Amino acid sequence: MNDQHSVRNGLWIAAASFVLWGLMPLYWHLLKVVPSLQIVMHRMVWSALLVAGWLAWKQGRGWLRATLARPRTAWMLGLSGLLIATNWTLYVWAVNAGHVVETSLGYFINPLISVVMGVVFLHERLNRLQWISVALAATGVAWLTWQYGQPPWIALGLALTFGLYGLIRKLVAVDAVNGLGVESVYLFLPALGILMWAETHGSGGFAGGWGWGVDALLVFGGALTALPLIGFAYAVRRVPLSVVGLMQYIAPTLQFLLGVLFFGEAFDRERATGFIFIWGALAIFASEGLWRARRQAALAAT
Predict the structure, then answer these.
(1) What is the pTM of this model?
(2) EamA domain spans which residues (predicted)?
(3) Handedness of CA 219, 157, 188, 19 (dihedral sign)
(4) Do 77 and 172 contact (CB within 8 A), yes or no?
(5) How far is it, in rounded angstroms, from Cα 108 to Cα 15?
(6) 154 close to 147: Cβ distance less than 8 angstroms
(7) DSSP state, 262?
(8) pLDDT surpassing 70 at residue 100
């Protein structure tokens, strides 16, 4: 009964995390008056304070030293911190520049990018259905490139930075929250320095130019950065990864719907054709992963 209760809680928390990620364009849109770079810097500063404070409360003041004591951790988390900062910056800019649909495309193709990185960097092998998925996704990207005269750079940039981030976090043996804490510590001083420079040179507004409502949203943006990841880390320890893998498509689906229905972005037949290739690839990929997980569970039970 306790295990069922734990799994049920994990499912609810995973769903809440993905829904929060999916609805986040609405939040960043409320901050459209703030330059995108400053939104990201505030996100880094306040999430660093929140995560570092939480880790100090749960694990004591020595959590940072204990985490960095592991081999290769310091420089690898420094690199992953740069990647996630690049991903956040591109994402916030794209949302407030009217490219929500393309950001959703980036997170739709991200799982397939991660599969390719596993083949290239970790020498993993793919079966026939997985290769078909990758080929369909590549066809969709090629179609969009041909139709619009250039690759979907925003989607590819988001998928590549987050895919590389996931690869590094897979290679470094650190808990998800501790890893986020170290990355936040690395990013804290540069982000704070940029914000202070902006305030003293007249391009910032946190001291009164934007109003207390916007200031509050900037501060709470740190919590929105940390809470879904903490919830995700909680869920993956209690819910089968195959289930979490399917649930992750909640976020880009909500982003896509927001882009088309709420923000009114264009979604013509040509763009829909490219998306259909990619959605088909994801359907095959997800179905194959679910079937394989069930087969392994059946063999283990036998």
Answers:
(1) 0.86
(2) 10-145
(3) positive
(4) yes
(5) 17
(6) no
(7) I
(8) yes
